[in-house]
Amino acid sequence: MSDTIWPAGMDFAAALAATAKLTDDSLDKLIPVPPDLEARVFEAMRYAVLAPGKRLRPFLVLASAQLFSVATRSALQVACAIEMVHAYSLVHDDLPAMDNSDLRRGRPTCHKAFDDATAVLAGDGLLTMAFEVLAQPDTHGDPGVRCELVATLAQAAGAPGMVGGQMFDLLAEHRADLDIGAITRLQRMKTGALIAFSCEAGAILGKASQEQRLALRGYAHDLGLAFQIADDLLDVEGDTGVTGKPVGQDAAAGKTTFVSILGVERARAQAALLVTQAVAHLEPFEAKADLLRAAARFVVDRQT
Amino acid sequence: MSDTIWPAGMDFAAALAATAKLTDDSLDKLIPVPPDLEARVFEAMRYAVLAPGKRLRPFLVLASAQLFSVATRSALQVACAIEMVHAYSLVHDDLPAMDNSDLRRGRPTCHKAFDDATAVLAGDGLLTMAFEVLAQPDTHGDPGVRCELVATLAQAAGAPGMVGGQMFDLLAEHRADLDIGAITRLQRMKTGALIAFSCEAGAILGKASQEQRLALRGYAHDLGLAFQIADDLLDVEGDTGVTGKPVGQDAAAGKTTFVSILGVERARAQAALLVTQAVAHLEPFEAKADLLRAAARFVVDRQT
């Protein structure tokens, strides 16, 4: 595999599509199905993680890794680990005990296609495998870098991050008194932490300076919030035929979101402001960060 | 903390009790409850992992680490990580979607004490934190050792090990055609893999020779099967007042177990044979392995 992830001048849409292909090929190899009775859990893991998707997080890993000339193979390993964690979180969030969703990315959710027990186990299996992939020598020649990836992902995905954010979100449904500060904190944990790790992973792999790492973290923080506001807007204004999920779910559930607090117009303006801020963080990287700039614009313009 | 885990000549029961105290103190420090709304998931994690228990796996880590004069702090970090994984697996296995158990270690199960969603998240949080703990510099000065611990635990706990074993077990409930070979394989995955990792972890921490590592793996393999047969026997002959869980569950569910295939007498003889085999593997370690020998006898003699 060449160490140029994308040819010079490739536009964002083409780079995103190329990332999805590379990531899915790697995931396919990382999760073979054994010939035994437990094959069912591997099939459910594959169903969840290979479901059609934008692969935005893998893209962020590859694009941030490219800033530091990281080997493609290293970046892809991390991209696969993050996509496994993302897929696991969707499988568990969709369970009847949690959000009870039947449809995801236009297909039956994992527990609908299999069953609840298999979905719990498939999520557990994907989460566990993500750490195995990060710890493998293929991910980086320096085990210190691999340990830093494991510890940083665990913080982003665990109770101090994504898992805590989901807990917060479930409790928030019963509280109408949440203000914009609380919702911002909730979303930083629930979706922001994994997006931030996707960007920071490139800096960890590339042994970037503390300054470069902070710049990427700043970019990712703004990007993550813009992403969530765009999600809330899609729930109000989206088209089920395009998004692949029902519209108006948040309002029907009486959920406090950026849109319910700010209204559509101010929410849209806030998302645009966050994109401008995100892009400003990338200045030190000059033209090399053009694809990350395009990603920030994509995040608020997307229809799915 | 002293680097002698247990004073010379301490007997097994005292060493097991001392391990439980050390492990619980460490777990208590590793999982502080934050002051925010997501505190609930941390409380559920603590409820699950600090529930009264034998702490057999932590004991196996400390006892195997002691063979190679590993620092107590290192061994305790790994012991905590394994206990987190063990607790997570119980929380998810007890869910209504899985075994639907209300009682565990004499107390309401996690989803009964909290709710199903919180239990799913608490399990996810414990599993994730286990890998964070292993990757921390506190666990070992050599990041290569830490990566090996992460990768080996992930294999033992994930779909090729414990998660696959649980999938296998759920599917096996509907099949009466399983023979002793299939049940042995199921139990090696479901309970044996984590017990084997507990013993192997000491060797990894101590950078033991391949020969020493294989000896410990052999010990752990036999110990794990003996442990499971003893568990099956307790389900037939145990006392709910002592075990803290209902008796006769396996038979009521029509489950194929070592006891249903072999009968009580032959199962008991097989467990005794496995203990003899387990102890034989420890010969190279001479008197230093006496506590591991006692653990093997304990595993089949225990009443809970």
Total number of beta strands of chain A: 2
Q: Which architecture of chain A does the CATH hierarchy give at level 2? A: Orthogonal Bundle
The main sheet of chain A orders its strands as 1-2
Unreliable spans of chain A are none
Helical fraction of chain A: 55-70%
Please outline the major beta sheet of chain A.
Answer: 2 strands, antiparallel
Strand content of chain A: under 5%
Overall tally of structural domains of chain A: 1
* Structural class designation of chain A: mainly alpha
Question: Could you tell me which chain pair has the largest interface and how many residues each side has?
Answer: A-B, 58 and 58 residues
Summed up, the helix count of chain A is: 14
Oligomer: homodimer
Distance between the termini of chain A: 31 Å
CATH class of chain A: Mainly Alpha
Radius of gyration of chain A over all CA atoms, rounded:
19 Å
CATH superfamily of chain A: Farnesyl Diphosphate Synthase
Helix and strand topology:
Two copies of one chain form a homodimer.
Chain A: H1 12-30, H2 39-49, H3 56-66, H4 72-94, E1 103-104, E2 107-108, H5 110-113, H6 116-135, H7 143-157, H8 162-172, H9 180-205, H10 210-237, H11 240-243, H12 249-252, H13 258-281, H14 290-301
Antiparallel strand pairs in A: 1-2
Helix pairs in contact in A: 1-3, 1-4, 2-6, 3-4, 3-9, 4-6, 4-9, 7-9, 8-9, 9-10, 10-13, 10-14, 13-14
